[in-house]
Amino acid sequence: MQEFELWYLIPILFVVMVILMFGGFRRFTSGMMTNARCLNIAQSYERIAIRELAEKCEMPEDKVIDAIEWGRSKGMPITIEDGEFVRLGDPATWQRGKQTVVYMVICPHCSHKNIQGTSECDNCGASL
Question: Which of 7-11, 53-57, 124-128 has the highest average model confidence (pLDDT)?
Fold first, then answer.
């Protein structure tokens, strides 16, 4: 019987490590894209209940809250008040045009920032 040698395991361990690293990176970027997708939906409302937003995003409420907190940490003018997602600022000024408010929509495919209202990503052309 031939004796088992440890160096045979090195290529196998390397392949397993690469697979685990790639899978972890995909999960990380997938989370960012999910957050961006949820915030894109939320930004179309001035105010919306977290429960209703969770249904529209097809996500659990706690993940929607995490996405909103993620957006706030990135400097987005949004908050949660009384169980509702709220865009901050004076809505009257948005409607009358006294103040220019530009919201950026993050592409779920390439993470490029596009101006809200754009139907396709300026960078990759994907549908927003």
Answer: 53-57
How would you classify the pairing of strands 113-115 and 104-106? antiparallel
CA distance 128 to 120: 5
Q: Which residues of 72-90 are buried (b: 16+ CB within 10 A; e: fewer)?
A: eeeebebeeeeeebbbeee
